[in-house]
């Protein structure tokens, strides 16, 4: 339906990703889940599939820094907390953050969406 050829590996990964409630996974997490489900795929194939799912509009990528991305099965507009100690993201409803005074986009461009990642860490006493 998303215009992707349903290879056995893609179908198996889609089942792992979309079977339950909405969630955020890294490529490494999905790779570990695939291994425990006896789906034999390389990390490179996981990366490729995640990016193909993203390009097909099935996933949203949440980049928390240059080397770390999570893939969100909820593609609707919302924001995220990044829990630095646990290295995971949780949702912030779109309505909880008011974004004002966005600059005019560069000439000839539209703003597609605004992602806010709020980084949090446990209070140390
Ligand atoms: Zn999310």
Automatic annotation (TrEMBL):
Name this protein carries in UniProt: Ferric uptake regulation protein
GO biological process, one term: negative regulation of DNA-templated transcription
Protein family membership: Belongs to the Fur family.
GO cellular component, one term: cytoplasm
Keyword Cell membrane: no
Keywords annotated in UniProt: Cytoplasm, DNA-binding, Iron, Metal-binding, Repressor, Transcription, Transcription regulation, Zinc
Chief location: cytoplasm
Self-association state and partner proteins as the record states: Homodimer.
UniProt GO molecular function: DNA-binding transcription factor activity; transcription cis-regulatory region binding; zinc ion binding
InterPro entries: FUR, WH-like_DNA-bd_sf, WH_DNA-bd_sf
Repressor found in the keyword field: yes
Record-linked SUPFAM superfamilies: Winged helix' DNA-binding domain
A Pfam family it matches: FUR
CDD domains noted in UniProt: Fur_like (cd07153)
Localization of this protein: Cytoplasm
Lineage: Bacteria, Pseudomonadati, Pseudomonadota, Alphaproteobacteria, Hyphomicrobiales
């Amino acid at each position: 339906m998303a215009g992707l050829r349903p290879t056995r590996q893609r179908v198996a990964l889609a089942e792992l990703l979309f079977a339950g409630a909405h969630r955020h996974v890294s490529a490494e997490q999905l790779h570990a889940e695939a291994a425990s489900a006896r789906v034999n795929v390389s990390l490179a194939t996981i990366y490729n599939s995640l990016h193909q799912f993203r390009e097909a509009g099935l996933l949203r990528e949440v980049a928390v820094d240059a080397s770390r991305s999570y893939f969100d099965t909820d593609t609707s507009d919302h924001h995220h907390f990044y829990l630095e100690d646990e290295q995971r993201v949780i949702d912030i409803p779109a309505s909880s953050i008011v974004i004002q005074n966005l600059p005019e986009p560069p000439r000839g461009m539209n703003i597609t969406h605004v992602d806010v990642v709020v980084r949090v860490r446990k209070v140390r006493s």
